[in-house]
Amino acid sequence: MTRVLILSWEYPPLIEGGLARHVRKLSEALVEREVEVHVLTRGGEESLAEERANGVIVHRIREPKRPTDLGEFVAWVERMNSDMLAAGVELGDRYDFDLVHGHDWLVANACDHLAKRFDAPLVTTIHATEHGRHQGWVDKHPQTYIHGVERWITNRSERVIACSHYMREQIADIFGVEEERVTVIPNGIDPDDLQPQDPAELTRLRAEFAAPDQKLVLLIGRLVYEKGFQLALEAMPRLIEEAPGTRFLVAGSGTHEAELHKQAEELGLMDHGTFLGWIGDDVLHSLYRIADLTVVPSIYEPFGLVALEAMASGCPCIVADTGGLREVVPHEEVGLRFRAHDPDALADVAIRVLRDDELGRHLVAEAYEHLRRFDWGDVAEQTAAVYAELVGDPHPA
After folding, report:
1. Which of 25, 294, 314, 344 is deepest in the core (most CB within 10 A)?
2. How far apart are CA 343 and CA 26, in angstroms?
3. What's the CA gap between 156 and 162, in Å, rounded?
4. Spatial CA neighbour of 295 closest among 226, 261, 249
């Protein structure tokens, strides 16, 4: 049996974004394939130092709340890596690890040292790049630092995992990593995790944001520039004019939140929608069920989990024709794509779906089969095969 140490800066119940959910679902699915999984991650002041959850052995270091200033954040990450390294060394005295698997630049330093100490192969999953998030502008600190760490750790790793073919090309081109060392394994989705509230509660929730005869457009995710919500807001006046009664709902929080509020006010949109702020998973999953359309207007998108969640929840979705979204949403089959960076193109496609209920039903029906491509069992199977290849196991779990 392969024994792997996975490092991640977040793991439920400590959730900063999608990475926590990814690492948990992958770890649990690997356990089902007879991989012994230890996860080294952060915890709050009250968290247990060690626990077993659904077969995964979780080891937590205690870390203070992360700072909001990006410059301070880099120093905080370096301290976190030092603490993870110390904890990992102790774990190495108790267990013989066959492989170390890190997620993103945030745990790179600890992963490097631990893999060398254990004389074990290092796998790194790159979920996004600083180069992509900032459209290539990585000439100033801390972007330069983060970009440098990403380049170093991808070249240092025996294998890099990317969530899409788009990301594989990015990693090869930007970091100079040989493509044969980059394995594409998509993110997964479990529709059972998207269970909505009861119908009466959904009806009540829907009434908070739109009347029965109105259409509700959902924008959901981290409110950061690269997610492109500013483009969707720019398209909203035309949507409202050509599909009267359309309302919008922005769910999430992030560094771009204040600017989006200001933009909505300047466009006269505040009477036509709601900014909900940060929400928990229970409400988040219900929002897909009450919306008539989910829009994913990303400028940069390595994968596109929001599109999968919308499809799994029975909500039609339209996405920007960019990055991993091209692979997640085959055009005209399970969703519709529009030209990235183009509010008018977004409006054209959104109006088409809002005016044609039959089209929406067709997209939802086709999406049901499409989602099978992103089963966590398959994701774990492919990941276990990478582990087996690197540790020399001819019979992967």
Report:
1. 294
2. 36
3. 15
4. 249
Please provide the distance, in angstroms rounded to a whole number, between the alpha carbons at the two ends of the chain: 8
Helix-, strand-, coil-residue percentages of the chain, each rounded to 5? 50, 20, 30
The third-level CATH classification (topology) of the domain covering 3-188+375-391 is Rossmann fold (3.40.50)
DSSP 117-184: HHT--EEEEE---HHHHTTT---STTHHHHHHHHHHHHHHSSEEEESSHHHHHHHHHHH---GGGEEE
Q: Which CATH architecture has domain 191-374?
A: 3-Layer(aba) Sandwich (3.40)
CA 330 to chain centre: 19
Per-residue pLDDT of 225-270, as tens digits, reads 999 999 999 999 999 999 999 999 999 998 999 999 999 999 999 9
Residues of the chain with CATH 3.40.50.2000: 3-188+375-391, 191-374
CA distance 171 to 152: 11
- CA angle 335/331/175 to nearest 5° reads 105
Q: How far is CA 354 from CA 211, 241, 246, 292, in A?
A: 15, 12, 9, 7
